[in-house]
Amino acid sequence: MYWNTRADDLAVKAITGLLERNPNLPPERVDDVAIAATTQQGDQGLTLGRTAAILAGLPMSVPGFAIDRMCAGAMTAVTTTGSGIGFGQYDVVIAGGVEHMGRHPMGLDADPNPRFLTEKLVAADALNMGNTAERLHDRFPELTKERSDRFGMLSQQKVQAAYDAGHIQPDLVPVAIRTAEGWGLASEDEGRRPATTMEGLASLKTPFRPHGRVTAGNASPLTDGATAAILASSDAAKELGLTTKMRMVSFGFAGVEPEVMGIGPIPSTEKALKRAGLSIDDIGLFELNEAFAVQVLSFLDHFGIADDDARVNPWGGAIAIGHPLAASGVRLMLQLARQFEQHPEVRYGITAMCVGLGQGGTVIWENPHHKRYGKGR
Amino acid sequence: MTDYSKIDFSELAAAFADDEVVTHSYVRDIRLASGRVIALITLDNGRDHTRPSTLGPVTLIELGERLDELTARAAAGEIQAVAITGKPYFLAAGADLSKVGEIPSRDIALKMGQLGHMVFGKLGELGVPSFTFINGLALGGGLEVALNSDYRTVDASAPAIALPEVFLGIVPAWGGAYLLPNLIGIENALKVVIENPLKNNRMLKAKDALELGIADAMFAPVNFLEDSLKWADGVLGGSVQVKRPNVPGKLERLAKWDVAVGIARKSIEGKLGTTAKSPYVALDLLKAAKSGTKAEGFAREDEALADLVSGDQFVASIYAFNLVQKRAKRPAGAPDKSLARKVTKVGIIGAGLMASQFALLFVRRLQVPVVITDLDQARVDKGLAYIRDEIGTLEQKGRIDADEANRLRALVSGTTDKADFSDCDWVIEAVFEDLAVKQQVFAEVEPHLSETAIIATNTSSLSVEEIGEKLTHPERLVGFHFFNPVAVMPLIEIVKTPKTDDETLATAFATAAKLKKSAVLTADAPGFVVNRLLAKVMGEAARAVDEGTPVPVVEKALAPIGLPMGPFELIDLVGWAVAAHVQDTMVREFPERFYASENMHALSKLGSPVVEKDKHGKVTDLTKDAKKAITVGKTSVDAATILRRVEDELAREIKLMLDEGVVTAAEDIDLCLILGAGWPFQAGGATPYLDRVGASERVFGDTFHHPAIRGVGA
Q: CB–CB of A185 and B229 under 8 A?
């Protein structure tokens, strides 16, 4: 859909869509704009936060910058600017991310330092995410291909059910697209496969290894997309009449061996829980990025949660929707916020994701619709 | 009523089929947030932004087929609306003009209008509402696509929206002349259809289109199409109410319509005369649009267009348009651009009004240091003060910001020491029009200049070669003749002497282009092009008066050419002394062919107003004082005789100039007269007019153009 659409324009349209939904926010009150991208070159380069802010029509007085933590770009944009709010240096910020994986395949034109290999710091195949997912299957033999496939199929079904219920659409920004057949309008996620069956999944190729386990059916596809969110201090939100959708409680980032980057969210979640003084049992909703089914399953196994636990990705995830790397962190937040509205009984939720080069990121959020919101434990 | 579906357009399409750059009509269904489906047509010629989409017969036929298919789909309930938009930056730039000058018959011209009406008319008969999203440039037929739709949005960044037909000698005839006044009211329509085209083809910005009511809504470019689709969804669902306060009501039709047309007619007659046909045909169409059906309006447009397209004025206009658009951008005889030297500092000899105007123009356009010099510091200071004032005025008007004003002020300096010219790359004089004076100032300056500095003279009547006689390096001298007012007039005559080298000439052309002027290369012949031919016109006018013809007769005698002003209005504008001086110069060079009048000299010394003028600035007669000051004969001639004399003298002089090689071709003569003297498009400058009235044939037994630039006729 977006082959003829510039990456920066996707970021711009996410920002204008956000501003349109929040007419109470005077644009000049935005203190900073942080936009993440993994491959910051060409139409995805040039200090994206600043350029996107100008192109979106924000006043010249609003600054901006670019962020990169590979898959956790938007998440890091949120935690970094959120920290600035916590420290009292911002009132309102816009944080988001973009990845046009069609135009900027992961690792394109990268020039990794040869020391990674000569000093055996990182295995040669650890830069290929599919290989790291295969490595997780090796490490945890109980994570079978069948479990991964089933998780993938359910993700497809859950996303379609959420679409059918109209849960997803309110947070989408339609984008005009230029095609050989004239202008069109992108208004839904393109890569969904709701008719996926276990038989169909079993027949897919395993491109990373002969007779491997990782397939197009249990991994996220290559996707183009952008996201943006407003963060504000509670005082500013009250002053401007901005609706609070979630409150950031804590966050954590952690490093793991790059060869098994998929387990990154385990230590990052433990960090975030510890800082919040919470345990995993306090978490009522999980938005886990589905880079690979196996990587989510490793997380669930670690915390003793069932593969089909209703609290986990109730509207599906990246296997069906896609994972435009640096954009996904805010997409997880959007879905969690909508679910908070529907689940006032849930007090805390998390968004978590694995990150290339062996990292994990987790943010814990509080539901403003919960009866004890803001009242302490 | 015309049944367009019964007309065979195959001959028309065949005439264009080989050469038309077809703008295709791509259709995609778009599901709106409400669930309604809008079929979106994209007009796209598949070329990049240097080739706007245009509308030729093959294009129109394809669009018509798509609209027929959509009509059927609408009836089947598959779509709830149709919208049209364009490729990035363009809706469409109007009819394909590249071939329109070669239309073989009136019948084909008629079908050109009918085909547009048939196709665009379908936008009102789809069975579902139609929208046009004006995403960019929309001219002529491009805007008429929108006018034929039920609703319109416009991109706030659309650079130009206009119906420029009258400028080109035709009328909006794909619905524009009928639909526009019925959408935005008669006064606004008169402005868009007639007034703006006659003001040097002025165009509307998006905001103007919104305010006039041409567009129902305007959206920022960042999400123009998305917002337009959303708006359309709102219109279809009833949540968006479209208000059109400018749609004419009963009262306007009864009380205002004819009056407004009448006022406009008087104003055009007063300013322009009645020679140009298209403004009056447009007036008639707009007047008739007051009542009757759309079909009747369309039929009137068909006939009007056919008449104009097959007439002489339109073909000459297209010729003139191509001169200005194409030939002016690639001057004939200009050396290779790569030979041009860089101009990083400009020296101006003189600090008077003309010199100061040069300084302002050079510093604004070239943005390099400009130094002016004169005999004493007081004159220099006066010049500098004028330039700085003018920069201040530009700043106050918001044409430049404060930083730019500071930059420009800092770039301009003055000196009485010619040594300060040592690092100038370009030196131009604007001193008194006297050979000895010009020779002397160049002789004084040259020793201080680098060997590669270009020396330019703004002389209008002296020999450039003679001006350079005392130079050590005459090969770097070039004539660079501006027209007054310097900031406004778009022409520079670049004069090559037998010694001027290619580097100098190339630098002159490059500099003219940077000054945003059109340049024409001329030989070093007296009066170059414009003044030589205007001297002919003024000389014949003076001759007629000297013979005893009343000034009002002389002043109106040339009306059939459609010149922007009568001969005495022109003389009064350039100044009686200057005009007399030019006549003297030409007579000195060509005593047998030019006419000098003692009466002109007498009038130049009058000291009080020479002529009476009406409210349009047109000369009605000499003042009483002026009449007393002159002595005239008793052999008054009639207007027809004066006109014929002027036509014949122009034809003779232009033929001579071409034979002498003053310019490369007749096209350059016409370009000079259009850009330097405002001669009309409908005359094609001069030579198409002289051919078509038979002057060329009378004088030299041939025509300037082969074939002559004529319409196919009825």
A: yes
Q: Which of A168, A185, A187, A188 to probe the B interface (max B CBs under 10 A)?
A: A185
pLDDT band for B549, please (50, 70, 90 cuts): very high
CA-to-CA distance for B695 and B652, rounded, in angstroms?
9
Chain B CB within 8 Å of residue A182 CB: yes
pLDDT at B425: 97
Quick: pLDDT tens for A52-78. Answer: 999 999 999 999 999 999 999 999 999
- The answer on pLDDT for B207 being more than 80 is yes
What is the DSSP code string of B274-313? S--SHHHHHHHHHHHTTSS-HHHHHHHHHHHHHHHHTSHH
* Residue A234 near chain B (CB below 8 Å): no
Helices (H) and strands (E) in chain A, counts: 12, 10
Mean pLDDT of chain A: 96
Q: Indicate if B539 and B485 belong to the same structural domain.
A: no
Q: Do B28 and A175 touch (CB under 8 A)?
A: no
CA A216/CA A357 separation, integer angstroms = 21
Strand partners, A253: A361
Count of C-beta atoms within a 10 Å radius of residue B544: 27
**Per-residue model confidence (pLDDT) at position B89:** 96
Sign, Cα dihedral of A21, A26, A31, A37:
positive
Look at residue B709 and give its three-state secondary structure. Answer: coil
- Report d(CA B115, CA B9) in Å as an integer: 7
Q: Where are the alpha helices (DSSP H) in B76-195?
A: 106-121, 141-147, 176-184, 186-190
In a domain, B578, yes or no: yes
Q: What one-character-per-residue DSSP string does B569-606 give?
A: HHHHHH-HHHHHHHHHHHHHH-TTT----HHHHHHHT-
Q: Which domain holds residue B652?
A: 530-661
CB of A172 less than 8 A from some CB of B:
no
- B576 and B519 in one domain? no
Last residue within a domain, chosen from B523, B547, B575: B523
A57 to chain B, any CB pair closer than 8 A? The answer is yes
Buried b (16+ CB within 10 A) or exposed e, A70-87: bbbbbbbbbbbbbebbee
Contact yes or no for A55 and B222 at CB 8 A: yes
State whether residue B507 is helix, strand or coil. Answer: helix
pLDDT in tens, A23-51: 999 999 999 999 999 999 999 999 999 99
CA–CA distances in Å: residue B373 to residues B425, B479, B515: 15, 20, 21
Contacts of A211 (CB under 8 A, 6+ apart): none
Q: State pLDDT tens for residues B287-325.
A: 999 999 999 999 999 999 999 999 999 999 999 999 999
* Cα atoms in the 13 Å half-sphere on the side-chain side of A25: 27
> ipTM more than 0.90?
yes
| Inter-chain residue contact B222 with A175, CB threshold 8 Å | no
The Cβ of residue A202 has, within 10 Å, a number of other Cβ atoms equal to 12
Count of structural domains within chain B: 3
Domains of chain A: 7-104+223-240 (3.40.47.10), 116-219+245-366 (3.40.47.10)
